[in-house]
Amino acid sequence: MNQSALRSLPSVERVVTSDVLADVIAAYDRDWVVDLTRNALAETRRSILAGGEPQSPDQIAGSVRQAIDDLVTPSPRPLINATGVVIHTNLGRAPLSKAAMAAADAVARGYSDLEIDLSTGRRGSRQAHLQSLLCQITGAEAALAVNNNASALLLGLSALAAGREVIVARGEAVEIGGGFRIPDVLRQSGCRLVDVGTTNRTYARDYADAVTDDTAAFLKAHASNFRVEGFTAAVDERELVALGKSAGIPVLHDVGSGALLPTEKYGLAHEPTPQEAIAAGIGLVFFSGDKLLGGPQAGIVVGNRDLVSRLERHPLARAVRIDKMSLASLTATLTHYLSGNAESQVPVWQMIAAHPDAVRARAQLWKDALTASVGYETAVVPARSAVGGGSLPGETLPSWALSISPNGSGASPESLLAALRDQPTPVIARIEDDTVRLDPRTVLPEQDAALQQALSAALAP
Ligand SMILES: *Cc1c(COP(=O)(O)O)cnc(C)c1O
Fold first, then answer.
1. 140-162, pLDDT tens digit by residue?
2. pLDDT at residue 325, as a whole number
3. Ligand 1 atom closest to 222 (CA)
4. Which of 52, 9, 13 is nearest to 30 (CA)?
5. Ligand 1 pocket, 308 CB below 6 A?
């Protein structure tokens, strides 16, 4: 044991008064810095007892400073998504439109008419802000927005089917991602799952045969993150609605991504839309606010007035209610669809609609702006962008990417990815064919300068 190293441990005062901490002491509560210094000294003592090297007062002050920087750096931090995956759950899903951000900002900075009816001065409903917009856009009678789609489903099933049976096609009793499984949500809502058909084929008679006095609903769930190909059959919405009508059973459909524009217009497979589910007579349609709808995190339910009001009255509705900032930005996002300018204003649709030539031109600009990149080979190469976020599985958009091969630099593709993540504005890219690929499609135009800076810094010798 290193007794002299232990004796040489500096005092708290010596560390706190180190120049390294001068501006930190000026900016924050001194007692807090003193506490963190005590912790750092205790850590150093333990490390010396375990055979570690002694540390100078400035080194210990440096670790205190690092701990403070880590705590006070705003988090989550903005970054650049150069993966080409438009809706990336780990990167925060949909970026908001300017109008949606402004709307959230306006209600965040002060008071608002969140739950007051300005014409009467009496208490109003926060749902009123959204209801008519959602009904106009989807053709539904009634609408409700909550915290996210998972909670919307939990609320819907709890309110309509607790203690009873819900019939689901076996191929739709799926896991959506992040441990979210339809059978688990049903169980959590107090319902009994009755799965019918087989993994690949389900017919109307499978549903019909499973109906009992205890059946509360038919549930359809969009298999949003995988594709069953080949010998398959599913019961379409209209057929199930007809069956439900004759048996007096409501049909619920979790369409997942909330695409309000037709994805086939952009060369993608058709993604089920809330509008067509309503037109088919579905009782309640569930979808997310922050996937293809392109708004904030939210879960939206549209459909039959009586069913929606049962959800509104359920005690869980309060537990999963939407907050005012999401509500404001969701309203603003929906307005883009009514005005017909979603493709030019909602970032996820701007990205999906971006022409490959425009993407290629940006990749070329990035390549041309790179100067100090000794040992790296760069090229603009064809690529495929994905929609992601549990929508359009396996579907990609033709795109272009800046490809960087670290061959002659002594670096590896992995170390270059790490260097890009380590920039003041981190850049998330991907590796393909042993090269780092950056797809401009998912990089917001106003991030071009930051991206070029990060690239130059990460490639600097
Ligand atoms: C994404 C998704 C969900 C979960 O939605 P959240 O808004 O993330 O809670 C549920 N169902 C389907 C089909 C989905 O694609």
1. 999 999 999 999 999 999 999 99
2. 98
3. 13
4. 13
5. no
User: Pocket of ligand 1, candidates 91, 176, 189, 271: which has the most ligand atoms within 8 Å of its Cβ, to mutate?
Assistant: 176
Question: Using an 8 Å Cβ cutoff, are 243 and 193 in contact?
Answer: no
Neighbours of 28 (CB within 10 A): 15
For ligand 1, say whether the CB of 150 is within 6 Å of any of its atoms.
Answer: yes
Residue with the bigger pLDDT between 409 and 325: it is: 325
Q: Is the pLDDT of residue 249 over 60?
A: yes
**What is the rounded distance in angstroms from the CA atom of residue 355 to the CA atom of residue 376?**
28
Pairing type for strands 377-388 and 85-87 reads parallel
Contact 258, 426 (CB under 8 A): no
- What number is the average pLDDT over the span 424-448? 97
| pTM score, whole prediction | 0.93
- CB of residue 258 inside a 6 A radius of ligand 1: no
- Is residue 180 lining ligand 1, measured as CB closer than 6 Å? yes
Taking the C-alpha atoms of residue 257 and residue 273, their distance in angstroms, rounded to an integer, is 8
The answer on pLDDT for 425 being more than 70 is yes
Q: In a mutational test of the pocket of ligand 1, which residue from 224, 257, 290, 322 has the highest number of ligand atoms less than 8 Å from its CB?
A: 224
- Pick the residue whose CA is nearest to atom 14 on ligand 1: 256
185 lines ligand 1 (CB under 6 A): no
Whether 92 is in the pocket of ligand 1, judged by its Cβ within 6 Å, is no
Q: Which residue has the tokens 């005062």?
A: 13
Is the CB of 390 within 6 Å of ligand 1? Answer: yes
Instruction: Give the closest residue to 300 by CA, choosing from 138, 87, 175, 60.
Output: 138
Tokens 């490639």 correspond to: 459
The rounded distance, in Å, linking the Cα atoms of 194 and 191 is 9
User: Which of 77-86, 105-114, 345-354, 370-379 has the least mean pLDDT?
Assistant: 370-379
Residue in the block written with tokens 């009123």: 128
Strand order in the sheet with 142-146: 142-146, 299-303, 284-288, 251-256, 215-221, 165-169, 192-196
Residue 1: pLDDT above 60? no
Q: Is the CB of 250 under 6 A from ligand 1?
A: no
